[in-house]
Design brief:
With about 270 residues, the protein is an alpha+beta fold. Helices cover about 20% and strands about 40% of the residues.
């Protein structure tokens, strides 16, 4: 199983930096954005708690538990993953424990560089890493960039990011970001995201259509986050994700996220 396949199946909210909260509604959308698209985006923001509160999120620390299946429906086992993000400067850290999918990844969104410790696919212990940090490069680096540019909080503030926002269908907002696009379908009654669709780069050599369905919305620091997600690739369910813990604005620093684990093992509570 390709490393990034396991990662993508359990992808959860990881976030990019927000602009100053006072400027959220006042900024001009990207030149190809449409009034209908921006209006839908603003409805989404309001349903989540408001653009100012979303932009005020400075850091995130989320731990999830997931069940994953392969394309034949065979169980891949349980995965636990911790996602940490700092807004200024833009910093991401992923720590995951799973069979043949145990890894650590760090990415500096400002410099566009980072490192990772890959799963050991030869060890008898299916939960070991290679114990060797390597620089992100090639498809791994592209995956990290896409991981950051297309994540939920970043999409929720698409007008601030300068992304192109349109409305191809009623209650569907299309957001173009980093060379890719994500279509978010809003619930007609609540305005909350019901699902999102795009292309998965779990295996960079085999991009596939992907869909995420959102449930279990709860408020943290005045912003509503989904605590349950269903993941689909090419129409097949590939993962069920449940949030175990979510902490917002706890004072994380880039230095903390950049620190390599002394035992080369993921830092998952």
């Amino acid at each position: 199983m390709p490393l990034k396949l396991c990662i993508a199946l359990i992808t959860v909210a990881t976030f990019l930096p927000g602009s100053g909260s006072q400027a959220v509604r006042g900024q001009t959308p990207a030149q190809r954005s449409t009034p209908a698209g921006v209006a839908l985006l603003h409805r989404l923001q309001d349903s989540l708690g408001g653009a100012k509160r979303i932009a005020a999120v400075s850091d995130i620390d989320e731990t999830i538990r997931a069940q994953a299946w392969d394309e034949r429906g065979a169980a891949l086992g349980e995965v636990r993953k911790r996602t940490r993000w700092v807004q200024h400067p833009s910093t991401l850290r992923l720590d995951q424990v799973g069979p043949r999918g145990t890894y650590v990844l760090y990415f500096d969104g400002v410099s566009g560089s980072g490192w990772e410790i890959l799963p050991d696919l030869t060890s008898a212990d299916r939960y070991k890493t290679t114990r060797t940090p390597i620089d992100l490069a090639g498809g791994e680096l592209e995956f990290a960039r896409e991981y950051l540019s297309g994540f939920e909080l970043n999409l929720w503030l698409a007008d601030v990011r300068g992304y192109t926002v349109t409305a191809p269908q009623p209650n569907v907002v299309r957001i173009e970001h980093g060379g890719s696009a994500t279509e978010v379908t809003l619930d007609a009654d609540t305005g909350l995201p019901a699902k999102s669709a795009g292309v998965s780069l779990a295996d960079p050599d085999r991009p596939v259509p992907s869909e995420t369905r959102y449930e279990g919305w709860r408020a943290f620091a005045g912003v509503r986050f989904p605590t349950s997600r269903l993941k689909y690739h090419s129409g097949l369910k590939r993962g069920e994700v449940t949030t175990e813990a979510l902490h917002v604005n706890v004072g994380l620093t880039p230095e903390q996220l950049a620190r390599k684990p002394a035992d080369f093992a993921p830092d998952v509570p």
